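FORM 12-B: Structure-to-Sequence Request
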């Protein structure tokens, strides 16, 4: 728990007295920063509310409330209180070691036992802790210190890093300089179209009737026909032409252009086909934000390209490209969308690719910090020099009582009904509307009537229910109505769960040195291959397996590599597994779930997992830190890009403030979770419910 005011005053100097020496001995004033891959924490028992659109107020959290705890405790129809389930589960698992079953397991049998407690349609499953998803080990044995992560979403900033190493910032909402207009073609200048036909074409264009057309006699000579097509295209933007044959006559048919053709025709020459812009968002998910932008522009989300998803609970900046959408239209969104700003517009020839990023720059503020200056310095120095275990963080598995990897397991088992029910079933922690909607479906199984009971933002549930309403009992068909990104989210979560478990066992049993049979992908080789999967906090860049092929370490080469070159595979049909005892761990973990790690192909392509590789230990780059004293726990300690553009200033720091905050910056490769670096620093659980319990108001 956070220490007293006296403790922090005596043990930590003010920022005015404190600077950090760089490795070369120079003094660096350490400010700013940004952060990306984790959606945890929040503020508990806050009463202040602010209007921030669909993102909610900054005081809102993924809270595990006292009311929720009380509700869980009442679910005792089977004689086991939910407060005791965790302990009894732990006891049961521990006792299984007596008969040769490892305690690493979060067993399917335990999950099944808990899931059966549904007399009132509410599962007694608790929201996951780190140990539930295989996150158990640390790099250093240093003691941690206390601090609260994401007490405010303004405490977590994320800025994408471009391929050239520059950090992406929102600095302007100005439009790019316009290109000179092409000279307008006058009808009198037309050489190949008669005045009568030109008048008909003008009337057709004015009518905008896509069912009407005008027929023009076509010259026999191909070059002459081409000239007619070209002149009509120049003189009448919005019309399209095609040569047709009617009997023995060759004609040119002219019609109103289709929507896509119109888009292609009207885009000015001399500019790239894609508009690239910086997307700034606050307290919103990347995919939801792109969906909102697309909806307001009347476009499909698939027209937008971005490298990966950024944290929901934070202030983030990333690049986006979109095909032939004018920056004027994009800029107009700034007037109508809350907590979303677009700017830094430019034209480019190609869309963003999944490999178009070198990672993310994080600025993190830990509030209510306690611990001695020596502890803080030692922890930051260890994180800088030794790094952290590259676990998939808690946001990979969701913050609700039914983790994403449980659904992914059912999908890989091709148990479509279970997967659908896990998504739709009642669970603890829902608000009143969601709880009522889930309860109605669970008790009636009336999918059609249930759809409108779910809020609009529950698009996964509503998509599944629409499928079930159309074809009852077709659970696979219903699940296929969910967007591909979200379908992949679940199976990727299961891959991540297995990887975490095996990685913990590897570190626990064999330490942090390479061993014969390990898989090696040197960091310089991996840099160009560590890419987010096709688009997702959660979905895309969070998995991002390396696609390079590994080398199996032997006795002759073991001295050439360090633990930072060692990778472990994500289970998949194209993955190579370590040539040592670790391969057996994959078999053991997945057999308990009825799955075969050597057979990851499925009849349905989306659930055929190729696999990939992930470094087990990562060192952050460009690390810096500083301490702040502050009084107001609800005021910002750092400024985001948009804060700077608005001219905001900080007024929450003083030399004698009652609370202490640690601000630090670091850069991480794609798919690495900053929360796992923070976990290494603090030596505490980064799950949202635990962090909520630490909040100071």
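FORM 12-B RESPONSE
SEQUENCE OUT:
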């Amino acid at each position: 728990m956070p220490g007293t005011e006296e403790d922090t005053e005596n043990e930590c100097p003010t920022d005015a007295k404190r600077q950090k020496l760089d490795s070369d001995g120079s003094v660096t004033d350490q400010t700013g920063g940004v952060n990306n891959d984790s959606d945890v924490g929040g503020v508990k028992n806050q009463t202040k509310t602010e209007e921030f659109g669909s993102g909610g107020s900054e005081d809102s959290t993924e809270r595990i409330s006292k009311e929720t705890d009380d509700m869980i405790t009442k679910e005792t129809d089977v004689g086991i209180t939910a407060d005791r389930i965790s302990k009894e589960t732990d006891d049961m698992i521990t006792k299984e070691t007596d008969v040769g079953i490892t305690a690493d397991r979060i067993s399917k049998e335990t999950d099944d036992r808990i899931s059966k407690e549904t007399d009132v349609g509410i599962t007694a499953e608790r929201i996951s802790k780190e140990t539930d998803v295989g996150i158990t080990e640390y790099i250093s044995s240093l003691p941690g210190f206390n601090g609260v992560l994401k007490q405010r979403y303004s405490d977590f900033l994320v800025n994408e890093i471009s391929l050239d190493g520059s950090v992406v910032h929102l600095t302007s909402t100005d439009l790019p300089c316009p290109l000179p207009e092409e000279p307008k073609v006058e009808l009198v200048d037309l050489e190949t179209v008669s005045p009568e036909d030109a008048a008909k074409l003008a009337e057709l264009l004015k009518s905008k009737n896509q069912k009407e057309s005008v027929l023009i006699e076509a010259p026999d000579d191909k070059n002459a026909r081409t000239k007619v097509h070209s002149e009509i295209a120049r003189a009448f933007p919005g019309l399209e032409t095609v040569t047709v044959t009617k009997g023995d006559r060759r004609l040119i048919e002219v019609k109103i252009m289709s929507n896509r053709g119109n888009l292609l025709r009207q885009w000015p020459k001399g500019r790239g086909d894609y508009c690239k812009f910086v997307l700034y968002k606050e307290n919103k998910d990347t995919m939801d934000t792109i969906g909102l932008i697309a909806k307001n522009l009347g476009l499909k989300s698939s027209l937008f390209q971005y490298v990966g998803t950024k944290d929901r609970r934070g202030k983030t900046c990333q690049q986006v490209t979109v095909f032939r959408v004018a920056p004027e239209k994009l800029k107009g969104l700034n007037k109508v969308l809350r907590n979303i700003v677009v700017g830094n517009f430019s034209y480019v020839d190609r869309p963003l690719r999944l490999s178009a990023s070198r990672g993310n720059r994080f600025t993190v503020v830990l509030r209510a910090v306690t611990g001695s200056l020596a502890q803080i310095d030692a922890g930051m120095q260890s994180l800088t020099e030794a790094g952290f275990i590259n676990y998939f963080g808690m946001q990979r598995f969701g913050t609700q009582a039914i983790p994403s990897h449980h659904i992914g397991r059912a999908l890989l088992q091709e148990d479509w009904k279970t997967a659908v029910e896990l998504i739709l079933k009642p669970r603890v922690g829902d608000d009143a509307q969601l709880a009522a909607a889930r309860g109605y479906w669970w008790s009636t199984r009336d999918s059609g009537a249930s759809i409108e009971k779910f809020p609009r933002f529950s698009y996964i549930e509503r998509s599944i229910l629409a499928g079930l309403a159309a074809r009852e009992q077709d659970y696979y068909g219903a699940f296929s109505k969910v967007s591909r990104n979200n379908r992949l989210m679940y199976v990727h979560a299961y891959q991540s769960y297995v990887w975490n478990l095996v990685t913990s066992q590897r570190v626990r049993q064999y330490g942090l040195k390479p061993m014969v049979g390990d898989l090696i992908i040197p960091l310089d080789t991996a840099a160009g291959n560590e890419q987010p999967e096709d688009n997702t906090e959660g979905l895309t860049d969070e998995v991002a397996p390396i696609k390079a092929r590994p080398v199996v370490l032997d006795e002759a080469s073991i001295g050439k590599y360090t633990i930072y070159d060692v990778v472990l595979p994500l289970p998949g049909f194209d993955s190579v597994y370590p040539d040592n005892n670790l391969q057996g761990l994959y078999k053991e973990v997945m057999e308990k779930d009825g799955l075969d790690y050597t057979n990851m192909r499925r009849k349905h392509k989306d659930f055929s997992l190729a696999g990939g590789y992930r470094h087990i230990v990562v060192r952050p780059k460009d690390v810096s830190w500083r301490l702040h004293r502050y009084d107001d726990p609800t005021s910002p300690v750092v400024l985001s890009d948009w804060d700077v553009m608005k001219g905001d200033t900080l007024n929450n720091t003083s030399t004698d403030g009652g609370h202490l905050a640690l601000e630090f910056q670091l850069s991480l490769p794609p798919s690495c979770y900053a929360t796992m670096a923070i976990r290494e620093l603090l030596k505490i659980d980064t799950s949202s419910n635990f962090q909520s319990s630490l909040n100071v108001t």
